[in-house]
G-protein coupled receptors family 1 profile domain-containing protein
Amino acid sequence: MLLAIPCLLYSTTKVYRSKGTLKTACLLLWPDGLPDVSYMDYIYQVLFLVVTYAVPMLGMTFFYSAMGRVLWGSGSIGEMTQRQVDSIRSKRKVVKMFILVIVIFGICWLPYHGYFIYTHFDPSILYMKYVQHLYLAFYWLAMANAMVNPIIYYWMNAK
């Protein structure tokens, strides 16, 4: 909720004419200018990247690694029954699932966050013909992460 406060405070609409028709755009109007020139927007995007991407990636990596070490390393001494072999195989499959969840999260969300950081350094991209399509593709990919996780869980766990 705290990350949404700047959007609440600085969001506005702007009506402009494009090819003879009136269009309305919703944008953030920071105290120091529009996002393409605003240093406040850049700081906000970096903070947003850290809070919603870097911290979750580090957290998942740390905690899944800790669980994975326990699961992967668990074995038994001496001869193993088939049930023990199946149990070890199942635990190792869970570790592989952890790795896949982290990788998919990284792949899905990095382009979205990278887009906003990149536009600060090259604002001309905002005026390219298909930039809205590119943004929507990155947004779709980020939102697809929520759909992909249950598929991964179902695919990698028969239970």
Observations:
- The beta strands are 11-18, 21-28.
